[in-house]
Structure formats: structure tokens, C-alpha cells
Amino acid sequence: MANLSVLCLLVSLLHLAPLQACRVGKKEECDRAPFVPGHNLVGEGFDVVTLQRKGAYVTDLQTYLTPTNTCTLCSNRLMGNQAQKMPLTVLDWRPSSTCRQSLSSFFFNSVSSLLASSSLSITNDWKVDLGLQRVADQQLAGSQSAEVIFASSQQQEDKTSFITHQLTCSHYRYRVPWVPPLSPEFHQHVKSLPHKYSNDTAYLYRHFIDTYGTHYIHQVNLGGKFKRVTSIRTCLSTLNQISATQVENCLSAGLSVGLGQVEASVSSDSCRKVLNNQDSVTGYTQGFLNHITEVSGGNRWSGVFSMTQNDSEGFHRWLSSIKKNPEIVSYSIRPLHHLVKSTTVRLNLQREIRAYVQKNGLPKEPEPQTCGFDHPNLSPNCCPLHTHRGWLTVTVARAWALHGKLLGPPEGYVKVFYGGIEQRTAWIKSYDPIWHAQFSYGHVDTTQQLSLQVWVKGWWWKEDHLGGCVVSIQRGNHYHDCWMNQGVFSYSYSLQCDPHLIGPKCNMYWPIP
């Protein structure tokens, strides 16, 4: 019996333990106490299209006194057990530290795959009761977020892949009631919405969405987040013989060095190229990497630091500051129309939210093109492996005023040389032969020279060389006359560079989406 009593006491203590950090406070100490950190980061309007808070609140987060002039005071163990007050609408507040200071990294080969990851901070099914669960051909959440806008702009310029690096610390969590008390402003705005929905009244609902968004934040985890999204010019990195995996590994190492998580060491040549964003093959001045950085919570740390040496002072100040000034790192959201009592207005708002989300959705991209291993100078991701490569076609047109050692019209032909390959026109007996012979040399190295020679039959079945021309080929279509001691002949050639190559010798990089 004594053992049973002890067991019951232990169970009771376990249930009370989380509650003992909070108590009822009197008005004087309530007025004096600060709010819990991030007390106003829940119950706020939220736009699921941009993944941004709207700064307009659907519930009252400033009232903390009950009708009896008391409040809830909680001891914050993350801030020296300081007593802090909670708004009346906040429930289940608690410190809950989870801080992974090591960076996580992920590779994405398209904007679509990056977009799919950008909404992972939403911890619930945000599509509930919006009729969007079966939308399969569009990506909706985050379609106009900052990182997706950045990624789309990069993809419009060039063939691009992406890498994200992220570090997240979570320190607090809490929620608002399932049906929270509405803020006066939100309540009045809802009441002003017309019951009749038409082309003439739809703008009022759109204005409501512009103000409050599509959802409200119901539950949050607060802390800080550092996230860096890097775009890679896929084909420029391929030309530099740097793979996406190398870029990811080098950036991970550089970021870890800068944040003071690992000791700086001598980097490989490829990592130096990555960290210096240096194209050493074509001299492309914009480099092959671009990035944006997002820092949430804490002080005004920019997230900019050296990646070749320990430059972590600002980072550690930021880490220390997010306990006092946290931001949302993950959250659950509910559609705003759930807060509307009028059935007619609720359905109208639901309809307008659904239309707004779908209008801003992005079509799902097809899988990136692959080229296998059968194409010369193309990697499996369809990028050139080397510069100075292209496709060459030579056309020998005709000649005028040819003369040989034999009496009468000479019998002549033209030899064409490129890259060790010789091709010939047919023999034609004429002072002014017309060949119109076209020769394909296929895929060539543009650093070599094109040579053309005119030959005619001589004495005793010998061939006499009348002359010729040697030319250094360049990109494009070119037409030439070759003057010899005895006559002239005309020819042309066409050099088409491999994809992503440009310049006279196909030696420069050309961004192509």
C-alpha cells in the first residue's frame, strides 16, 4: 500500500512539473513583467503563396490581464528564470530547446524540387477545406516566396541547379486556441465583407487577402534560422570539371570553417575555385555561383562571413540573441475563412482564397533533360565537357581559269584537310569546274586549321599542285575565294559551336536556360 502511495505521488509530480514554471501573478507584477519572447508571432495573418507573415493580427495578443486583474507569469529558464507574462490567448507556452549548430545541405536539380522543400516548415496540411488536395499539376505553397523567385530568375538566365544549407535552433513553442478570440480590427473587417459575391464585390475579398493573407498562424516553434540558397550554373561548372557534389561539399566545408565549426585547412584546387567563384576555363566574369541568404530571429546579423577562415563572431552573437528575440522556424496554419461565422461570407472568402492560391501556382516542371553518354563532348546532363568544340561543314563551290601542263582543259579536283581527315571532290575536266561538293567533318576541335588544295593531272599520270589556302576556322558561316598563281576557287564553311559555347573559336561560355 505504501508503494502504491509513492507511485501515485510520483505520477502527480510528473503531471505538475511542466506547470510549476508558470503561476498566477498580481496586476502590479504583471504590468512590470515583460512578455514571453515572441508572444506576438502566433495568431497573425499568413500568406501561403509567399510564405510571409502579413503583420496583421486575427486575434488579440496584447491583453494579458484577466477580469480579476491577474495574469499568467512563467519562469523562462532560457533567460535566467526571468518571470514573463503571457497574452490571454496564448496556450501551452514552454521553453523547448533544440539547436543543431551543424549545417544540413540538400541538392535540387530544378526549381520545382526546391519549391517542394521550401514549404516543409509548415507542419500541417494547409490545404484542408480549400478544395486544393487534388490539384496535381501545380505547386502552390511558396510559389511566390523569396527563394523561389530567386531560383526562377536564375533558371531563366541559364541551366541551373541548386543547393541549400540550413541551420535551425528552436527554443520555444506555443499555440492559440482552436477558435481564438478575434482582434477588434479583424472582426470589423470580416463584418464589412459583402454577402453578395460578384465581379463588383470580389475586389473587397481580394483586399482582405492582401491585408491578412490566406491563413492564420495557429501553432509555432520559435528560435532562429540561417539558410543559404546557392544556384549553380550547371554547364559552366561542368566545363570547369566541378560536379554538383563537389560544389556542395566545398560550400559545406567553407561555411563550416566560417562559422567556426571546423578548423580551416588547405583546400583543394577545385574547392578554391568554388569558394572564389572562379571560372578558370572560359573567363566568364559572373562566375558559376549565386546565392541568397535568409537569417531569421535574433539581432541584425547579415549572414555574410568568410568561408576561408573562422569568422564566427557575428554568428555566435546571433545565436545568443535568438533566445530573447526569436522568430518562427516552423508552424501550423489554418485557413482564415474558418474564423468567419456567416456561412455566406465564409464560403465567399474560401472561394477567393482558393482562386488566389491557384492563380499564383507554378506548373510542375518535367524531369530535367538527359543526354546519356552517346553525344560527343556532352555530359549526361547535356552540358559541354570542353571548350573549343563544334560542328564543321565545308563546301567547295567552283573554280575559274585553271590551267595545267597538258594541252586543253585541265582535269582537276580539290583536297580538303581538317583534323587529320582528308576528303576530295570529284575529278572535273574544265577550265571553270563546278563541284558544289559538301563535306561534313562532324564534331571537331576548333584549334586546328582548315586546308584546301587544288590538284590537276599532269604528265605520266602525275598530279600537279596548283595551290591552295589555309584558314583558321571561326564560328558562323564564312565564304572565301582562294587565289592561286593559276586561277581561283571559292569555298565556304560553317562552324556551329556546341551548346553553351560561343566566341570566335567556341572558347567562351554562353548562358542558355
TrEMBL record:
It comes from the Eukaryota. It is found in: Membrane; Secreted. The keyword Secreted applies. Keywords: Cytolysis, Disulfide bond, Membrane, Secreted, Signal. Pfam families: C2, MACPF. GO terms for biological process: defense response to virus; immunological synapse formation; killing of cells of another organism; T cell mediated cytotoxicity. Residues 1-21 form the signal peptide. Its main location: membrane. One of its GO terms (molecular function) is wide pore channel activity. Residues 372-488 form the C2 domain. Residues 25-370 form the MACPF domain. GO terms for cellular component: extracellular region; membrane. Belongs to the complement C6/C7/C8/C9 family. PANTHER family: PERFORIN 1.5, PERFORIN-1. This is Perforin-1-like. The lineage of its organism: Eukaryota, Metazoa, Chordata, Craniata, Vertebrata.
